Amino acid sequence: MNYQWYPGHMTKAIRSMQEDIKLIDLVIEIVDARIPVSSRNPDIDKLAQGKGRLILLNKSDLADNKANKEWLEYYKSQNIQALLIDSRKSTGLKDIQKAVNEACSAKIERDRKRGIKNRPLRAMVCGIPNVGKSTFINAISKKAATKTGNKPGVTKGKQWIRLNQTLELLDTPGILWPKFEDNTVGMHIAMIGSINDEILHVDELAADIIDFMKNNYVGRLAERYGVEEVSDNFAILEAIGKARGCLIKGGEIDYTKASNIVIDEFRSGKLGNITIETVNK
Length: 281
Known about the structure:
Rossmann fold; alpha/beta; 6-stranded mixed β-sheet; 6 strands; Conserved Hypothetical Protein Ylqf, Chain: A, domain 2
């Protein structure tokens, strides 16, 4: 399957962000800890040139803990400020203010020398769809400041949220880029739910997930579903359908239902803590 998704509202969103960037001191990019490479939008790198940067690896509770630590070490070696967070449980949020101040240290020092005091830092919160931007803002502001949902495209417009006297956040819609040059990137983004499932062939996505699991987390599918991890991915999907009672008239397998079970349980962590992209792979 060719994984591509770029609805029209994303073009409008990136134009709006290009206008707003002149008001911004810092760009906070939220990525999914399971795919720290594929969930970084290259257009944000262009947008954020000359600004302070902070990368938040969200949903770190769903990722492999060893891989999380390796990614933090990687970013440190690249002189990039990065933190592991879990917005749903507010894990890691207490370290945000310190990281923001470090990322904006040059700006803070310039203001001090100019005699500018008590001016709040302004940060743009951005990322691809469904990485948890709105959940992060609601958690750190301790109120339902934005709409949230476990599907892409919930945040439609921009909004400012004042956290305290020293920091203001600009929430932005999730944006992808017009074309994934590497289809693997698109596949990884689809696997975590950042592409609208309605445009995908869910059986092919489930087969790709099954292929990844049996090659990288041997035994997890067998343990969860009681199936044999054979070479044919669709045979495994069929076996999962039988094990979970996904049947239609005549006793045939309901592949759509079986596929959605695999996809949902992969994304929710029921197949265990998983990192799709590791530092060395």
